[in-house]
Fold:
Amino acid sequence: MPELPEVETVRRGLAATIVGRRVEGVTVAERRLRRPLAPAFASALTGRRIVGVGRRAKYLLLELDDAATWLVHLGMSGTLVVAPADAPVRRHTHVIAVLDDGRTLRFHDPRRFGLMRVGSRADLAELAALGLEPLDPAFSAAFLRATARRQRRAMKSLLMDQRVVAGLGNIYVNEILFEAGIRPGRRTSRLTRAEAERTVAATRRVLTEAIAMRGSSINDYRDDRGEPGAFQDTFRVYDRAGEPCPRCHATIRRRVIIGRSSFYCPQCQS
DNA sequence: CGCACCCCCTGCCGGC
DNA sequence: TGCCGGCAGGGGGTGC
Structure:
């Protein structure tokens, strides 16, 4: 579910609504997430003030007033929603933090592929190996081409490799490669300069537009207010196998690459 | 080295 | 209608 645009949408919402709030109490209903919540998870949050909300790749980083960071990964089906204290508790709500203004911050995740942890930035090993932010100028055509040329793998695999560029997932890589006119299975070793330029430009364009539309919601994704995004209505190829290409009207194909559904136009993408 | 395949888990959809 | 298989936005591990 949530890729960079969805996580960024949640970040912006939380930054506007919970910064400055103190955590008065934490209820844990289910510790078994992707990794079990640490025994000290609730006590590490209780009494802390949230002083900022950041993002790195698909991780939310809630900065606390004791210099620790509350790290949240939404996995496939996770949401982090601000709700009134008396709002009904949905099934699969695993953690509820009560804030000092009476509202609550709730972590809901049916599949439990999400992750939460509190620690100093240096302790958060998840962040250590992440590659470039795709919207950072450092993610340039020169960088992409140099990285691509010294490997021999599918373009899709490279763009989904969080150690190279961090924050893209299956939906956005499919859309980006369509925009760039490159097939997902294309070998990175054959990437031309012009194709690297198109890929980087398409990455910026697709992500920027998706953030403006508050992300994509297929089933589970909701923002911090519990609202779905709108970008799913503009998918060009994702989940459109058998439909006509929006550019040339050839039939969109589906093929599994690195274990994930890949969609492309056999005519527009080479 | 890169990928296929497995796992984690619940829900939904289509076919029978 | 009900059951079953396949599939789903993520990530991590193993083994070829």
Residues 4-128 of chain A form a domain with the N-terminal domain of MutM-like DNA repair proteins fold (CATH 3.20.190.10). Chain A has a mean pLDDT of 96. DSSP finds seven helices and ten strands in chain A. Residues 43 and 77 of chain A are 26 Å apart (CA to CA).
